[in-house]
């Protein structure tokens, strides 16, 4: 996880520390991450981060520098990114610039999670917008159609099957090819309560629906998370 331990947003499902004044970026972080990848001998790595709305580029350059360092030390390692939305309602054009910075570093997969259906975005993803997140995936395809795109949902916040289907169709409409569906588990009593535990059979059925819609790589199950068996899609 890049960009430090403190997030500038306060999503209702997430246990990462929140704050309005995170620490400055570590300029040596890209090199340190690359050295860790080399030491562990990783063939596939997923780079993610907290949200850093306090930074001028929201951390996009740090992603790109880290990717470049990994490729220098470990040229055979494939890199997937799981990024924030890099957006704001006041300056939507900056979102494209930030995403272009990461796309130019050429990850094999670009992941950005919707997390939940459109109706539940405000309580679950405070500070995020459903349309803005869809635009992340759309922009990646516009900038480089060869990069696979991916998204994920946490089920159990009170969404309906109909809402899930609508969300999957929205993802396919912007060219998203890979999907993860998992069960939301409450990190603490301070976080949003679980509204429903979806059964393994229901996850299997949703996975089959996703494949029928054209997703090329689907992981659907109670314990599935964003990076679950990520490298197996290659």
Global shape: globular
CATH topology: TIM Barrel
Poorly predicted regions: none
Secondary-structure element string:
EEHEHEHEHHEHEHE
Helix content: 25-40%
Distance between the termini: 22 Å
> Main β-sheet: number of strands, strand sense, barrel status?
6 strands, parallel
Strand content: 5-15%
Helix count from the secondary structure assignment: 7
Write the layout of secondary structure elements.
Blueprint (H helix, E strand, L loop, with lengths): L5 E2 L9 E2 L10 H12 L3 E5 L11 H14 L4 E5 L9 H13 L4 E3 L9 H4 L5 H14 L4 E8 L5 H13 L4 E6 L16 H13 L4 E4 L14
Parallel strand pairs: 1-2, 3-4, 4-5, 5-6, 6-7, 7-8
Helix pairs in contact: 1-2, 2-3, 3-5
Descriptive report:
The chain is of the alpha/beta class and 234 residues long. It has one domain: TIM Barrel (Alpha-Beta Barrel), CATH 3.20.20.70. The chain contains seven helices and eight strands, in the order ββαβαβαβααβαβαβ. It has a six-stranded parallel sheet with strand order 3-4-5-6-7-8. β4, α3 and β5 form a beta-alpha-beta unit. The longest helix has 14 residues. The radius of gyration is 17 Å and the shape is globular. The model has no long low-confidence stretch (mean pLDDT 93).
